[in-house]
Amino acid sequence: MDVVSDAISAVRIGQPSSNRLRVGGSWCTRFAPYEGAGFHVVLAGSCWLRPDGDGEPVTLGAGDVVLLPHGAGHVLADGPGDTMRAVPFEEMRRPPADPAGREVELLCGKYRLDHSRVHPLLAELPQVVHLPNRVGAHPELRSAVDLLARELDERRPGSCLALPSLLDLLLIYLVRAWTTESDTGSWPAVLSDPVTTAALRALHSDPAAPWTNDSLAAEAGVSRATLARRFTALVGRPPMAYLTWWRLTRTATLLRDTDAPLASVAREAGYSSPYVLSHAFSREFGVTPGKYRAGVRG
């Protein structure tokens, strides 16, 4: 596994949901804040997105994709004007046809995410990630959008399985695109640094391995001092501290998503015994692994 895949897997719960929206004329709809991430794909036409608070309005055109990774409330509308007229999305009814033919078609949806132990890569994402449709930019994202548009007809055989899978791909491609385009934040710099990326890939590929600073430096092909300096400066914590944090985050995910006994969880997370894991987990989370599992499932 790589850091982007693991970061998403650690917080993703269940399957994404989506709805197709066709509107025209004068319209305005509000999406309430959500414990997850929202997204919109503009399949045809254009509209405006205004995030709650002080966020600036964003104009969206055909082929544009927008991700709201922290579940911020927002409004979609035919223009950037008054949002007081917004109708809750759940109560939205298709307005009369626009005589000028200015209809908008969108795919609107949500990802269920557990934000209690979000990876710093995802925590660093802005409130709104807007990826406009530009020729030659992010071809894999453009392909996913095209495939989504074709799979929206539920009468096509296999569409009920294809659509959630494509939405999962969309999330990966959106995060990947942000890491390559963003000129702010530390994690785009982390993922563009070959030494730090090599170390992260090693840790995420086998977090249970008996890693040391020396063995990790050898994996990255640099000296121990060089690895420690570059990793700490970019990631914000030393390599072994990051490994401990990731092992415990991985433990929390296994407790949430599986019925594996604590001994198996300990082995997979890189701890020598359930007792050692329980001690480390309680120190980090404030509860025992058993109580944590009962709580998240309750």
Largest sheet features: 5 strands, antiparallel
Strand residue content: 15-25%
Give the overall shape: globular
- Summarize the helix and strand pattern as letters: HEEEEEEEEEHEHHHHHHHHHH
Q: What proportion of the residues is helical, as a percent range?
A: 40-55%
Which strands sit side by side, in order, in the main sheet?
A: 1-9-3-6-10
The rounded distance between the terminal residues' Cα atoms is 29 Å
**What is the rounded Rg?**
22 Å
Q: Regions with pLDDT < 50 over 5+ consecutive residues?
A: none
Task: Quote the average pLDDT.
Answer: 90
Structural class: alpha+beta
How many helices? The count is 12
Strand elements, count: 10
Summarize the structure.
The chain is of the alpha+beta class.
Question: Overview of this structure, please?
Answer:
The chain has 12 helices and 10 strands. The model has no long low-confidence stretch (mean pLDDT 90). With 298 residues, it is α+β, with helices and mostly antiparallel strands. A hairpin with a 6-residue loop joins strand 4 (47-51) and strand 5 (58-60). The strands form 2 sheets. The chain has a 5-stranded antiparallel beta sheet, covered by helices on one side. The protein has a 5-stranded mixed beta sheet with strand order 5-4-7-2-8, with no helix packed on it.
